[in-house]
């Protein structure tokens, strides 16, 4: 088994070297971005087999990305390096790489990459601060759902389920694991299916459904061995040990520990070896081999006590360190936001001031125009008033003239009436005389000459009266001084 793993690693190393050599050949030109992506993917796939190879390949990908000025490649390389360092229990270095990855992704506005790093940061929090881990997992989940990134969504449900398992909420954890399992099966990702099976087995163990736990873990173990997933094999053997210990199956637990310890040692993961030592302690303690159990405790807390104190300290202070760094980033972002706000406020104030100036200018112009219009209206009103006074004077004169003419007409009418009455008496007498003369003549009572003389006399009298009346009518009526 170990020989098969070594042969596979050697073949992968040769493949990587040949790929890297091809990338640097002048014939084909400079390395392309998709080549960087391929190396990052190769590095990521090594995380469960050989984390040191993960760091090595991802570092090469970072250097190539830097030459290409490929920000997404640099960010992903830093993220993968951080993952490799976390598998080697180098949590501080992993944190630095994660934060560096975020900076590259932010420069390229790669929200999807930032979401992946949030997931990785949540993994750093998970051993010590479950609530913070869930906070970052949920932030990452929001980004993954925004882009409908099914692999990331499935992995995040696994991580959330693991936190719920640690909180002893095993049923909720199994629900999350089942969601992830369905997505992994759709994607055909066997490695993540194996990890999900392992997590489900540990949740069954927490629910004391030991047979289900054994079945699921053995299925995961078989598939992991086929794919030479050394880290996963060691973790599954450890999980099986816990299941066997809960059932007091000591021989099976011992066999699982021996098999898994070989893989743990090959991975050079001190935390994993420590977990195995603790599992051996539990086994010997339950078997009442207290001396042997004490020996395993000494291995953990005496022989390498300095390392474990440092590791424990790193784990405990990791959350606060991470919080401080992220808080500093938040403060910087707030400062930038305030500067942007101040700039925006300045320009907004300038714009408002300009608008106010324009408004005042328009108001001044309007006031001047209004004053000018008012003056013109005043002048026109005065002109109208003058015209009205002139018209009143004319009307008054006309009234006087009309009144004078009316008085004159009244006088003339009175005179005409008087003369009409006068004529009716003065002219009627001569006419009556003529009628008498005509009557006498008809009866031959007067001679012809005497008749003519009388008629002539009457005619002259009538003519004199008519002339006199005409003169009187045509005379101007003098106004009465008393009036």
Brief summary of the model shown:
The chain is mainly alpha-helical and 483 residues long.
Secondary-structure blueprint of this entry?
Elements: H1 2-23, H2 33-45, H3 51-68, H4 71-87, H5 91-107, H6 111-125, H7 130-146, H8 150-166, H9 170-187, H10 190-206, H11 210-226, H12 230-246, H13 250-267, H14 270-286, H15 290-303, H16 305-426, H17 428-442, H18 448-474
Helix pairs in contact: 2-3, 2-4, 3-4, 4-5, 4-6, 5-6, 5-16, 6-7, 7-8, 8-9, 8-10, 9-10, 10-11, 10-12, 11-12, 12-13, 12-14, 13-14, 14-15, 15-16, 16-18, 17-18
Could you describe the 3D structure shown?
The chain is 87% helix and 0% strand. Helix 8 runs antiparallel to helix 9.
Alpha-beta content class: mainly alpha
The residue-averaged pLDDT reads: 81
Rg, alpha carbons: 63 Å
Could you tell me the number of beta strands?
A: 0
C-alpha termini separation: 153 Å
How many helices? The count is 18
Give the DSSP E fraction (strand runs of 2 or more residues).
Answer: under 5%
- Taken in chain order, the helices and strands follow as HHHHHHHHHHHHHHHHHH
Helical content, roughly?
over 70%
The major β-sheet equals: none
| Residue runs with pLDDT of under 50 for 5 or more positions | 1-29, 303-313, 476-483
List keywords for this structure.
single chain; 483 residues; mainly alpha; 18 helices; 0% strand; rod-shaped; disordered C terminus
């Amino acid at each position: 088994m170990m020989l098969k793993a070594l042969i596979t690693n050697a073949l992968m190393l040769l493949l990587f070297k040949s790929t890297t050599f091809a990338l640097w050949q002048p014939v084909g030109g400079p390395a392309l971005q998709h080549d960087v992506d391929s190396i990052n993917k190769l590095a990521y796939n090594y995380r469960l087999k050989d984390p040191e190879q993960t760091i090595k390949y991802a570092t090469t990908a970072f250097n190539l990305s830097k030459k290409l000025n490929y920000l997404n490649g640099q960010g992903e390389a830093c993220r993968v390096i951080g993952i490799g360092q976390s598998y080697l229990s180098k949590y501080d270095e992993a944190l630095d790489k994660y934060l560096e990855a975020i900076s590259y992704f932010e420069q390229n506005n790669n929200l999807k990459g930032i979401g992946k790093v949030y997931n990785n940061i949540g993994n750093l929090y998970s051993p010590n601060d479950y609530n913070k881990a869930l906070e970052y997992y949920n932030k990452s989940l929001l980004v993954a759902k925004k882009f409908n990134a099914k692999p990331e969504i499935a992995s995040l449900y696994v991580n959330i389920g693991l936190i719920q398992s640690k909180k002893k909420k095993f049923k909720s954890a199994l629900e999350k694991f089942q969601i992830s399992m369905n997505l992994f099966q759709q994607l055909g990702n066997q490695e993540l299916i194996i990890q999900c099976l392992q997590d489900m087995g540990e949740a069954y163990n927490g629910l004391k459904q030991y047979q289900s736990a054994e079945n699921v873990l053995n299925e995961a173990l078989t598939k992991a061995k086929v794919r030479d997933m050394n880290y996963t094999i060691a973790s599954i053997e450890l999980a099986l040990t816990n299941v066997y210990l809960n059932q007091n199956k000591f021989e099976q637990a011992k066999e699982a520990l021996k098999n898994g310890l070989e893989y743990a040692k090959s991975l050079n993961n001190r935390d994993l070896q420590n977990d195995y030592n603790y599992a051996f302690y539990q086994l010997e303690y339950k078997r009442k081999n207290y001396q042997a159990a004490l020996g395993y405790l000494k291995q953990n807390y005496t022989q390498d006590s300095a390392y474990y104190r440092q590791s424990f300290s790193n784990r405990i202070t990791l959350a606060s360190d991470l919080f401080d760094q992220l808080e500093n980033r938040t403060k910087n972002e707030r400062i930038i936001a305030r500067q942007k706000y101040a700039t925006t406020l300045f320009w907004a104030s300038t714009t408002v001031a300009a608008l106010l100036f324009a408004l005042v200018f328009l108001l001044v112009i309007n006031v001047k125009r209004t004053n000018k219009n008012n003056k013109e209206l005043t002048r026109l009103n005065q002109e109208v008033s003058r015209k009205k006074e002139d018209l009143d004077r004319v009307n008054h004169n006309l009234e006087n003239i009309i009144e004078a003419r009316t008085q004159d007409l009244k006088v003339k009418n009175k005179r005409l009436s008087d003369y009409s009455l006068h004529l009716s008496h003065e002219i009627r007498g001569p006419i009556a005389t003529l009628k008498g003369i005509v009557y006498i003549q008809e009866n031959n009572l007067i001679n012809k000459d005497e008749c003519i003389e009388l008629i002539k006399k009457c005619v002259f009298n009538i003519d004199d009266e008519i002339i006199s009346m005409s003169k009187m009518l045509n005379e101007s009526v003098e106004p009465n001084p008393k009036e």
